[in-house]
Amino acid sequence: MSHSIARMLLMLTAASLLAACSTLNPPKPGDSAEYRPTAPIAPKPAVANNGAIFQAARGPGLFEDDKAGRVGDLVTVVLAEKTNAKKSSATSTSKDSELDMSVGNLNVAGETLLDEGLSLFGASSTGGRTFDGSGDSSQSNQLSGEITVTVAEVLPNGNLAIQGEKWLGINQGNEFVRLRGIIRAKDVTTSNTVQSTQVANAQLYYGGTGALQDSNAQGWLSRFFNSPIWPI
């Protein structure tokens, strides 16, 4: 076995082992720092308070709604996602080529050199090439529900960076929703909710773990042979 073949087999084995990691290590609640709830910042009482109950850093204004606006506050995101996509393509190419090259007959001692009636110095070639390809793809997704997340950061322009996750255990598995993004404080309604379509830079992920999820997924070896790195 040559060194190149041995190196290729080693690379294929390593790739298959890496593909198996996603199956053997499914996501767990709280395993991602990007979706953990953010604790509120401890308020710093003003020096002039002298032990007063009211804290300016935490007390809402007299004419403000009780809705998210500080780090650690809760806000409910109403999931109303619906997408439809369709794409089709077709390609057709063709190419014809023809080559004809001949040289005058060669006379030797007054006679023409022929080979079964054909000139010894002549060539011709024809070729043709065609390609037809087509593709069609369509996808439709819909997700509805609600998830309550925390405000992770108040940006300088007043926008709120939010993040959080929701896990639900059902029989032999867990279903989860993870959400990150940026919202405008004025988009938060008086009931402290905001539409998911109003979340900027939204990172919304819905998945599951357990026996049902595993039964609906290909094994790691099958995924490896169906991956783009497989040369055949």
Helix and strand composition category: mainly beta
Give the amount of beta strand, in percent.
over 45%
Low-confidence stretches: none
Q: What string gives the helices and strands in order?
A: HEEEEEEEEEEHH
Order of strands, main sheet, comes to 9-1-6-7-8-10
Mean pLDDT: 75
DSSP helix fraction: 10-25%
Total count of helical runs of at least 4 residues:
3
Largest sheet: 6 strands, mixed
Distance between the first and last residues' Cα: 21 Å
Overall shape: it is elongated
Using only CA atoms, what is the Rg?
A: 34 Å
Count the E strands: 10
Question: In summary, what is this structure?
Answer:
This protein has helices at residues 3-24, 211-215, 220-225; strands at residues 74-102, 107-108, 111-112, 114-115, 118-119, 122-154, 160-170, 173-183, 193-195, 200-210. With 232 residues, it is mostly beta strands.
Question: Any overview of this molecule?
Answer:
With 232 residues, the protein is mainly beta. The protein contains three helices and ten strands. It has a six-stranded mixed β-sheet with strand order 9-1-6-7-8-10. Strands 2-3 form a two-stranded antiparallel sheet. It is elongated, with a radius of gyration of 34 Å. The model has no long low-confidence stretch (mean pLDDT 75).
